[in-house]
């Protein structure tokens, strides 16, 4: 049965992703409310990796808030960009290593349910959130993949409003990808010098 905590977590979670797709800076404070609520929800569901993920999301949301506002230390808004080869390599190394390490720990040392699935979705989500914080276009494609895995996990755990939320995240992630891609194309077109008129 859905709790008030889960319902408010769903509403704020949906709102923060919608704001992120619009590149609205309010995504970060709203996300902080959602992750705080989901720390409690996932603890009660014995999804400890997801619970820890929410703690890390809190830190990444503060980081993203700063990066979006100031483009690091350049004091201007960060534009959308593509992932570099190095970032892809980091992601492809990080996800399996983190999954194996955390999954093994949870399986052997806790009463965690779905330890390796929980660890894998946590690893991919961390990578996607870090990329979103840096306004990398591909973050949305990674979210689509991981959200598609989350839906059956949350159905299995009888977190039905959360499963619906992650199903809606699939559509929002696709919309975010399309919108950010248009913005990236606009930025690239502005960089192309116009032919001289003489």
Brief characterization of the structure:
This protein has 198 residues and is an all-alpha fold. It has seven helices and no strands. α1 runs parallel beside α7 (160-191) and α6 packs antiparallel against α7.
Explain this structure to me?
77% of the residues lie in helices and 0% in strands. With 198 residues, it is an all-alpha fold. It is globular, with a radius of gyration of 18 Å. Helix 1 (4-21) runs antiparallel to helix 2 (27-44), helix 1 (4-21) runs parallel beside helix 7 (160-191) and helix 5 (115-133) packs antiparallel against helix 6. The longest helix has 32 residues, at 160-191. The mean pLDDT is 91.
How is this fold's topology laid out?
Layout: H1 4-21, H2 27-44, H3 48-70, H4 85-109, H5 115-133, H6 139-156, H7 160-191
How do the helices and strands follow one another from N- to C-terminus? HHHHHHH
Structural class estimated from helices and strands: mainly alpha
What fraction strand? Answer: under 5%
Taking Cα atoms only, what radius of gyration do you get, to the nearest Å? 18 Å
Total helical segments: 7
C-alpha termini separation: 72 Å
Largest sheet: none
Number of strands: 0
Low-confidence stretches: none
Mean pLDDT: 91
Give the overall form. Answer: globular
The residue fraction in helices comes out at over 70%
